[in-house]
Amino acid sequence: MKYLMLIYGNQEKWSSIPAEEWPEAIAKQDAFNKKYQETGELLGAYGLADAAAARLVLRKDGAPAVTDGPYLETKEYIASFCLLDCESEERAQEIAADMPWADVEPVEVWPILHEAAADL
């Protein structure tokens, strides 16, 4: 079954990490990604831009209507996400707990209930 892992963050938190600590943090995340790519359980890992770069899109009169956003009422936003394919929810939770950031930030694990065919 497939699962979505959501990792939250905010610019203030990222800015508080000393520059000399980033290489180690990135190396740990790269090792995590490699470990679970090799088992076939990690289908993809994606880091998102700061929330200030996000846009809200609606259709208005058949055309895109784009505004700045999202307008979050909290400082936290989705910073990255991973797509897993593993045998059980328990296994997805084990992988989430192994995420390098999981000791300081919770990782949300969502079961994916529907998937559209890629060849549509």
UniProtKB/TrEMBL annotation:
<protein>
    <recommendedName>
        <fullName>YCII-related domain-containing protein</fullName>
    </recommendedName>
</protein>
<dbReference type="InterPro" id="IPR005545">
    <property type="entry name" value="YCII"/>
</dbReference>
<dbReference type="InterPro" id="IPR011008">
    <property type="entry name" value="Dimeric_a/b-barrel"/>
</dbReference>
<feature type="domain" description="YCII-related">
    <location>
        <begin position="1"/>
        <end position="110"/>
    </location>
</feature>
<dbReference type="Pfam" id="PF03795">
    <property type="entry name" value="YCII"/>
</dbReference>
<comment type="similarity">
    <text>Belongs to the YciI family.</text>
</comment>
